[in-house]
Design brief:
about 450 residues; mainly alpha; about 80% helix; single chain
Amino acid sequence: MSYEMIATLMFASMMLMLFTGQRVFAAIGFVAALSSVLLWGTGGVEIPFSSAMKLMQWYVLLTLPMFIFMGYVLSESRIADDLYRMFHVWMGPLNGGLAIGTIGLMVLVSAMNGLSVAGMAIGTTIALPELLRRGYDKIMVTGVIQAGSSLGILVPPSVVLVLYALIARQPVGQLWLAGVLPGLMMAGMFILYIYVRCRLQPDLGPPIDREELSKVTLAEKLRLLRAGLLPLGIFAAMMVPFVNGWTSLVESAAVGATTAFLVAVVKGRMTREVFENSVRKTLMISCMFMWIILAATGFGAVFDGLGAVRAIDALFTEQLHLSPWTILILMQLSFIIMGTFLDDTAMLVIVAPLYVPLVGELGFDLIWYGVLYTITTQIAYMTPPFGYNLFLMRAMAPPEISLGDIYRSIIPFVLVMALALTLVMVFPQIALWLPGYVYGQ
C-alpha cells in the first residue's frame, strides 16, 4: 500500500470514529497509536510515548490554565455585570446603543477569557434579557450576541491561538498581536452595521428613555466607568510587560491570573463558591486541551513520518495544477464545512498535521494563516445547520427565541465576517503589521 493511501486511510478512519460520537482525543489518539504499531511494529509505541514527553516539556503550555483561570474568576465573580452596566448608561441614548455596548462587552470579555463559550454565557445571561426587555428586535440581538462571542477566539489572550502556536511551532506573542487588529476591525464592522441598521430602522433598537437616563447622576456614570474599565486594567497589567519584553509569556499569564484574583478579593467577590467553581472549570478545560494536544502531536508524528504532506502538495500543485491561492481557499471552505459539526479545537487538531505544513510548503506566512484559520472558525461557528454557536444559543436563549430566529439572526453577521476574512486575505499586513512592528523594535 502506498504512503498516500495509508495517509488517506488514517484520515478516513479518524473521521469515521468522530461520526460515531467518540471523543475527539480518543478518536485521534487511537488512530495514531494503532497506525504507528501497524506501520513500524512494536517500536511504533515510542511515537505516542514521545508525544507525551514532548507535551510535558512545552513550557508555554503553562499559560493555558492561567488564562482560563483568569477568565473564570472574572466571570464567576460577576465583574462582567459592571461592564454591561457601564455600556448601558453610556451607550443607551443611541439607537441600537445597547447592542453596540454588547459588542464592546464581548470584546472586553474576550480580553479577559480567550474562549467564545464564556462570551456566549455572559451575553445570554446579562445582555440578552435586558435587550429584550428594552424592546430590541429579538432576531437582531440574538445575532449580536453570537457574533460578539465569536471574538473570544481571535482577540488576545486567545486560547485557540495558543493551541495553534503549539501545533504549528509559531511564537504565541506574534500570533496574539496578529489577532489584535483583525479582531478590533471585525468588532468595528459589527458596530457600524448595528448603527446603520438601527438608524434606518429605529424600531429594531430603541434608545433608553431620557427620563430614566436623567436619574443617573454624573458621579454614578463616572463610578460605573471606573468599574467597567477595570478589566482593561487587568489586561494591560498582563500584556504591557509582555509586549515590552519585561516578562515572558508564562510570567505574563501568571500576572494576569494573580491580578484578576486580587481584584476579586479586593471587591469582596472572591467567595469560597466562586473560587471552587473557577478552579474546577479551569481544571476541566485544561485537561481537555492537554488530552487533545497529546493526541494531535502523536497523529502529526505518524503523518509526518509517512511524508503525507509532501505527497498531497505534489498532488495539488503538480498533478491537479492548482495555484497556491486556490488550495488556500479550498482549505478555508473545508474549515467551514467541518465547523458545522466540530468545535474549533477539534478542527485544529484534526487538520493541523495536514494543513499547517502544506501552508508552509506553498510559501504562505504561518502567523498570517493562524489568523485566517481563526476567522474562518468564527464563521464556521455560526454556519447552519449545526454551527457550534447556534446550538449554544438555542440551549441558553429564552423560549420565545426559536431555532428559526437563531438561524436568521446570523446571516448579516456572517456576511460581515466573510468580508473581514477577505480583507485579511487580500491585505495580509492587517494581521502582520503589529507583530512586525513590535518584534521589529
